[in-house]
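Most newcomers find our protein records easier to grasp once they have seen one. The structure tokens are whole numbers drawn from a learned vocabulary of backbone shapes. The record below serves as our worked example for the rest of this section.
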Amino acid sequence: MPQLSHQTGTSLSDINIVPFVDVVLVLLVIFMIAAPILQSGIEVDLPKTKTVKEISEDRLVITIDRGQRVYLGNEPVNIHQIGQLVHARMQNPQTDAVFLRCDETVPFGSFATVVDELRQSGIQNVSVVTEPISSRPRTR
């Protein structure tokens, strides 16, 4: 008569989560490395307003950062040459819009100088970029 073995071990119905944890950790490392790369541009705390218009088109953007440095796109430029540089990149300076991002701590004089340089070069359509009031909490 054949002998039947009686095993008292556990069944294989448990899920092995070690491969899942490995994949999650690899994805976490990838996202930690890729996140700073995806955030290109100049760090600016924009002023907050109640009315904010979403921009869906690719336009010329001038940025004035906290240190009052002026950028055209992501390139630093001289504040007194900004009008000429923007005018050279535009197809129709009378109607094409230029977006001005300015840190909320920048003195009004720097902002006014950039706008004046743009106006002197014949650019009339200057829009100021802001963010919604409820977008982020005040940290200061």
In short: The chain has a mean pLDDT of 79. Residues 18-38 form the longest helix (21 residues). Residues 12 and 18 are 15 Å apart (CA to CA). Strands lie at 48-49, 60-64, 70-72, 75-77, 98-102, 126-128, 131-132.
